[in-house]
Write a structure and sequence with these properties.
The protein has 280 residues and is of the alpha+beta class. The chain has helices at 5-13, 24-54, 149-154, 186-193, 240-248; strands spanning 57-64, 72-77, 80-86, 89-96, 103-107, 114-118, 182-184, 216-219, 222-230, 254-261, 267-275. The chain is built from 5 helices and 11 strands. The radius of gyration is 23 Å and the shape is globular.
């Protein structure tokens, strides 16, 4: 019986020894996983280092009440410190929980923080707003991966929606035409998803923080955020229609904008829109 030429080529000549194919995509995907994990460990390490010096203290520091907002000197209690990634730029955020809604202070790393003493439990005497005789620093327009390829490789989920150009509206799907928007914090995202995401997980006790890879954004009554969820942590049969049904059961509070598998089909990218309700 004659041996087909194609078989000979596949087994020896053109493709190497049979069974020796190398899955480059799998290793490259694992490489990205390790890089992301290393980044998380570094962030946690320095959050702990900075927090050990500031948490539980009354401080006086140069800070702003939002990213790229007015900077002035504030006095406040520090109850928590996080490092947040804004537009591929890490910032130090100190939290003051002496008020019903915790306040965020974006610290200026170029200035030393004065530690007054132990936390007093009293709110900051300073109000946010424009310092006398100064103009605000405008928030930067998010760069697209095309214009900033380094950021696109290093940060899979930036604050602005992936693939948009600076001229596009970050919340155009809401129809409100908002050009300026604020960050939606990781803590707020975690608070939102812990109400429903554990229902979809094989291990409901898994920390939802594992699936939040960056900040969301918000404008005019709506916030948008992305999640990265590995397929193997989800219950069998979880698909976009299942998540959509869960979102629909929230009475319009959450909407599933998209749910897409990556090229290796081992991770979902999930985009959620939250309609901010007036609590007054």
């Amino acid at each position: 019986m004659a041996i087909l030429l194609k078989t000979i080529l596949e087994d020896y000549g053109g493709y190497g020894v049979q069974g020796q194919l190398y899955d480059l995509g799998k290793d490259f995907s694992n490489f990205h996983r390790y890089i992301d994990g290393a980044d998380s460990q570094i962030v946690q390490k320095f959050e702990q280092n900075i927090g050990s010096n500031l948490v539980g203290k009354r401080v006086r520091a140069r800070a702003s009440r939002g990213y790229k907002q007015y900077v002035k000197v504030y006095e406040f209690d520090v109850t928590k410190v996080t490092l947040g990634d804004y537009y591929d730029n890490y910032v130090v955020i100190a939290y003051d929980s002496t008020t019903p809604k915790p306040k965020e202070y974006f610290l200026k790393p170029g200035f030393k923080v004065q530690i007054i003493g132990p936390a007093t439990g009293q709110p900051s005497p300073q109000k946010g707003g424009k310092p006398e005789g100064k103009e605000p620093t405008p928030a930067p327009t998010p760069m697209s991966p095309k214009n900033n390829p380094t950021a696109a490789q290093a940060q899979p989920m930036a604050l602005a929606p992936a693939g948009r150009t600076p001229s596009e509206e970050p919340l155009e799907e809401t129809g409100d035409g908002a050009k300026h928007y604020d960050a939606y914090s990781v803590d707020d995202i975690m608070e939102d998803i812990k109400k429903w995401l554990p229902k979809l997980l094989l291990k409901p006790q898994t920390s939802v923080r594992d699936f939040v890879k960056g900040l969301g954004w918000k404008a005019k009554g709506k916030s948008v955020f992305d999640l990265k969820i590995p397929v193997n942590v989800l219950k069998k049969g979880v698909a976009p229609e299942v998540v959509k049904r869960i979102m629909d059961s929230t009475g319009g509070l959450f909407t599933l904008k998209k749910m897409e598998l990556n090229d290796n089909k081992d991770e979902w990218t999930v985009r959620i829109i939250k309609t901010m309700r007036d609590t007054k």
